Amino acid sequence: MVQSFRLAKEDWRDRYKTIVRNIGRDLLNKDDITYLADYMIYCLGREMASMAKEFQELWSGEGQPALHEALRQSDTLERMELRFEDALGLLFERMKAIREKRNYAGIIRDIRVYMEQSFANPNLSLDYLSEKFGINGKYLSKLFKEETGEKFVDYLIELRIRHARKLLAESGRSVQEVAEEVGYASAISFSRVFKKVTGVSPGDYREQQAGEAG
Question: pTM score > 0.85 for this model?
Answer without folding.
Answer: no
